[in-house]
Write a structure and sequence with these properties.
Elements: H1 36-42, H2 47-67, H3 69-81, H4 88-108, H5 111-115, H6 117-135, H7 141-169, H8 175-187, H9 189-200, E1 204-205, E2 208-209, H10 210-217, H11 221-228, H12 236-241, H13 245-259, H14 279-286, H15 291-322, H16 327-337, H17 340-354, H18 357-377, H19 381-408, H20 415-444, H21 446-467, H22 476-479
Antiparallel strand pairs: 1-2
Helix pairs in contact: 2-6, 2-7, 2-8, 2-9, 2-11, 3-15, 3-16, 4-7, 4-20, 6-7, 6-10, 6-11, 7-19, 7-20, 8-17, 8-19, 9-10, 9-16, 15-16, 15-18, 15-19, 15-20, 15-21, 16-19, 17-19, 18-19, 18-21, 20-21
């Protein structure tokens, strides 16, 4: 491959943002004086960038499959184990994976800051694949709850790792768009698990219930890991932050070669620390400006955002069933509503380039609240499905935008720690949602339940507007002045 020098000074007249730049750099910005981070931010997208996006997308596919699995097979599990929809055992079954996600995100979310993005991503994917397979062999509801909890531990850790990984390797002008493609790949799993449930829930194969087959399919992520683990690169930014300078340069050369650009002969120093930080040092950095306000913002954000995203995804089937539809009917309505997840994710691909990320997150929150209230108020099949699709569509514009956003606002040395520790709050809140929202649904109806959800989303939107920085098309060094 013929490498060309990278234009770090901007785009030639008439050249679109995010395209491959070639030629000489602007005066005063010679490639030899650039930082490693600036070089990655301005690099055109190459085959290795796309490979990482594809691998992360497939890994997150199995993550989303696991998250939405129980809501899709919940009715079948009620019949299998004789669980009442409002019993404590059924609520625990719905909540168990989210409780595991809380511990996984809290305790393992920072793992990527210690052992690297690549190793942490592969480890968490194998973890939840194995326990998903074990759950398929559950002999009673108690064993299934334990398996779902342990599956959730791995699931909870992988998203903070993936957000950090994508944010660090993707060029600034294509960061949102390419990350959205990875998330879009993952959300194909949501309607897939919904329609698998419609097909397999009623079936038995030689005494094996269909829901067990659905669980076993979720374990295929481990097979995928074995096929790609040797080709997946580490994040050069993380390696540099650990003081592993030569490894960072060697890995960066793989990205540069795949993009058809030449490496600078030397890199200038950047503000990013170049030695591993202890947990105490990472916490201390997060307590300093401007990261202290950003961290507080993410804490409040994740305490309440789960009401909208997971509140609907987890309880939509229960809401439909409360209207008098049978198990097959309610499962089908949920599966059709879940089509909005990949559609919303696809819609976010251009929106993340056109609209400032903070603004897009806030706007999508408002639409989730409006469409959710429409879903709750609808009393016929067509409107239930319509507002269900619109709600899930808005949910994934929101989800993709905030996953990109939260990974941009912290430096590489603490990024996964910041995301994991705050993201864990959304998981524990989500685990409590059946206990919070089901009584509201039972006593006051769907409209009241979605009113509570809308109030929580209003808190998120206001907090983000007041404390959240702007990030779109800004370099990592500019956003995060360490």
């Amino acid at each position: 491959m013929n490498s060309q020098p990278l234009n770090l000074g901007g785009h030639a007249p008439g050249e679109a943002s995010g395209t491959a730049a070639s030629g000489s750099a602007l005066p005063g910005r010679a490639p030899q004086s650039t930082t490693l981070g600036a070089f990655m931010d301005e690099m055109p997208v190459g085959a290795l960038h796309r490979f990482v996006v594809w691998v992360v997308g497939i890994g997150l596919f199995f993550d989303m499959y696991e998250i939405f699995l129980v809501s899709s097979i919940g009715s079948a599990l009620q019949n299998e184990y004789g669980l009442d929809g409002h019993s404590t055992d059924f609520k625990l079954l719905l909540a168990s994976a989210f409780i595991g996600m809380f511990f996984g995100s809290l305790l393992l979310g920072s793992l990527a800051d210690r052992i690297g993005r690549r190793r942490a991503f592969l480890l968490t994917l194998v973890w939840y694949s194995l326990f998903s397979l074990l759950g398929a062999f559950s002999i009673n509801a108690g064993m299934l709850v334990i398996c779902r909890f342990l599956t959730g531990v791995g699931v909870g850790a992988i998203y903070p790792v993936a957000d950090s990984y994508l944010s660090e390797i993707l060029p600034k002008d294509r960061r949102g768009r390419l990350a959205a493609w990875a998330y879009t790949t993952s959300y194909i799993a949501v309607p897939l698990v919904g329609f698998l449930a419609v097909w397999l829930n009623p079936l038995h194969y030689d005494g094996i219930a269909g829901w067990r087959v659905i669980l076993a399919i979720g374990s295929l992520g481990a097979v995928f890991v074995l096929a790609v683990k040797h080709r997946l690169p580490e994040s050069p930014r993380w390696l540099l932050a650990q003081g592993r300078v030569q490894e960072a340069h060697n890995t960066l050369r793989r990205f540069a070669d795949s993009a058809g650009v030449a490496m600078p002969t030397n890199f200038a120093e950047s503000g990013e620390r170049k030695h591993p930080l202890s947990l105490r040092e990472r916490i201390a950095l997060l307590g300093k400006a401007p990261y202290d306000k950003r961290y507080v913002m993410l804490v409040i954000f994740h305490l309440f955002q789960g009401f909208g995203y997971y509140g609907f995804g987890t309880l939509a089937g229960v809401v439909v069933k409360s209207r008098g539809f049978d198990v097959t009917g309610s499962t089908l309505f949920v599966a059709l509503s879940f089509l909005g997840y990949p559609l919303g994710s696809l819609l976010s691909v251009p929106l993340l380039n056109w609209i400032e990320r903070r603004t897009l997150v806030i706007a999508s929150l408002v639409t989730i609240a409006l469409f959710g209230l429409g879903f709750a108020y609808s009393d016929n099949i067509a409107m239930i499905i319509c507002f269900g699709v619109l709600t899930t569509c808005a949910s994934n514009v929101f989800s993709n935008a905030y996953h990109v956003y939260q990974a941009e606002i912290f430096p590489a040395s603490v990024r996964s720690t910041a995301i994991g520790s705050t993201y864990s709050l959304s998981r524990i809140v989500s685990s409590a949602l059946p206990f919070i929202l089901l009584p509201v649904l039972t006593q006051h109806g769907p409209l009241a339940m979605f009113g509570v959800i809308s109030g929580a989303l209003a808190i998120v939107a206001i907090t983000l507007r007041v404390l959240g920085p702007l990030t779109t098309r800004r370099s990592q060094d500019e956003i995060n002045p360490v």
